[in-house]
């Protein structure tokens, strides 16, 4: 019984961190789909755009990697939330870098379902997420 109690002692923290992580992902999605000049959901749902799905999936994955690193290395929930916001800003900066520096025609290429554009955006998003997570190991 003592072993079970010991195992369950961390359950409240798990619930708090997991709920906060889910909230962060929903907030990220809400903001991300509004800062992109195209409507990912309609491209995916209506036009069945593989490119939009790859780009959006990479953005989600990159952000989830970053907030996983924040959760793993935070000292408390407030610390986690601060770094979750910083990680979110880094992901938005990654989108801006790809859009304005690497592929100025990114919007048109994703709307036209040109897969290479979606792949590079996804790879940059995941890469920024990995770097985020690594930098959160203070």
How much of the sequence lies in strands comes to under 5%
Q: Segments where pLDDT lies below 50 for 5+ residues? A: none
Treating each run of at least 4 consecutive H or I residues as one helix, how many helices? 7
Q: Output mean pLDDT.
A: 90
Cα separation of the termini: 36 Å
Domains counted in the coordinates: how many?
A: 1
- How many strands? 0
Shape descriptor reads elongated
Helix content: over 70%
Over all CA atoms, what is the radius of gyration? 17 Å
Order of helices and strands: HHHHHHH
Described by its quaternary structure, the protein is: single chain
* Biggest sheet overview: none
Please describe what this structure looks like.
This protein is mostly helical and 138 residues long. Helices cover 83% and strands 0% of the residues. It has one domain (14-135). It starts with a helix and ends with a helix. It is elongated. It has helices spanning 2-8, 11-35, 40-45, 50-73, 77-102, 106-111, 115-135. The model has no long low-confidence stretch (mean pLDDT 90).
Features:
138 residues; mainly alpha; 83% helix; elongated
Blueprint of the fold:
Layout: H1 2-8, H2 11-35, H3 40-45, H4 50-73, H5 77-102, H6 106-111, H7 115-135
Helix pairs in contact: 2-4, 2-5, 4-5, 4-7, 5-7
Short description:
It holds the Pfam family DUF350. This protein has 7 helices and no strands.
């Amino acid at each position: 019984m003592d072993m079970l109690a010991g195992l369950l002692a961390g359950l409240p923290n798990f619930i708090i961190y997991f709920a906060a992580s889910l909230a962060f992902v929903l907030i990220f999605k809400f903001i991300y789909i509004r800062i992109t000049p195209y409507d990912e959901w309609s491209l995916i749902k209506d036009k069945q755009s593989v490119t939009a799905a790859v780009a959006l999936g990479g953005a989600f994955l990159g952000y989830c990697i970053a907030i996983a690193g924040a959760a793993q290395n935070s000292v408390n929930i407030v610390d986690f939330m601060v770094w979750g916001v910083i990680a979110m800003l880094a992901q938005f900066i990654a989108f801006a870098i790809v859009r304005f520096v690497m592929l100025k025609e990114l919007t048109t290429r994703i709307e036209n379902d040109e897969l290479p554009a979606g792949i590079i955006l996804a790879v940059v998003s995941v890469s920024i997420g990995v770097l985020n997570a690594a930098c959160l190991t203070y």
